[in-house]
Amino acid sequence: MENVYANVDLELSQISAKKRYQGSTDPSEHTSMPLRRMDSACLARTLMGLLLSALVAVCILAILYFNNVNSFKTLHEQYDKLLMKEDNATGCKKYGFCEEGWKSLGVKCYYFSTVKLNWTQSQDHCVEKGGYLVIITSQTEQDVISTHIWENHWIGLNDMQTEGIWMWVNNEPLNATGVTFWHHHVTGQYEPDDWKIEDPSGEDCASLGNGISYINNWFDASCRKLKQFVCEKENISF
Question: Which residue(s) pair with 154 in the sheet?
């Protein structure tokens, strides 16, 4: 008999506990686990979105970088082919390297100064370093040099001997090279204009650029002005 009463009491207690659970008004008892699962899902989706955005940004930057690198590489390859063509025409081929401080572009070495000197001092400085102010003889060479400068630089061109007769530092006349890159103003004027307002003696020396603009064009300027400059020489053969 005692066992019967014990079983009845156990069943009643289980039924009471079940009713208490079903009749509970605390929402946390029923929703805490689903809410935690929803919060985790939202966080995962947010992190995934941020990750995808970062990957897209990295891809865009990589594309821009490689486009610039390939464009610059193509320019140098064109210059190398041009210089190789010149070597083949003379029946010889040069291989070598440049000294420290000089940039190797094709079969030539170029020195881009950081100091500013007048035109004569610039030429003397280039000679001391075993070269001379740069002589530009092609569109490709002009473009390659322009990509390395951010303001105007002296080049090896002047008409100091005879006004209007422009000569390179190797005594070759400008018209012998067949290329010129004088700047043409929107007003219709063009370089060289031998402007005498700043220097009564005129403008007898040529530079790449004018101030910090038009660095891919030539301007005549007073030889007394202080500018950076570009030297060139052949590379060291081995």
Answer: 207, 229
Q: How confident is the model at residue 123 (pLDDT cuts 50, 70, 90)?
A: very high
User: Measuring CA to CA, which residue among 146, 157, 226, 224 is closest to residue 191?
Assistant: 157
Confidence of residue 93 (pLDDT cuts 50, 70, 90): very low
Q: How far is CA 29 from the centre of its chain?
A: 63
Alpha carbon distance 33, 55 (integer Å)? 33
| DSSP E strand stretches across the chain | 96-97, 103-105, 108-112, 132-133, 153-158, 167-168, 205-210, 213-221, 228-234, 236-237
CA 52 to each of CA 41, 58, 61, 196: distance values in angstroms, whole numbers, following the listed order = 17, 10, 14, 62
Q: What mean pLDDT do residues 179-195 have?
A: 89
Count Cβ neighbours within 10 Å for each residue of 47-85 and write b for 16 or more, e otherwise.
eeeeeeeeeeeeeeeeeeeeeeeeeeeebbebbeebbee
The residue with greater pLDDT, 8 or 65, is: 65
Tell if the pTM clears 0.70, that is, is over it: no
Instruction: Determine the Cα–Cα distance for residues 45 and 51; give it in Å rounded to an integer.
Output: 10
Question: Which has more pLDDT, 38 or 143?
Answer: 143
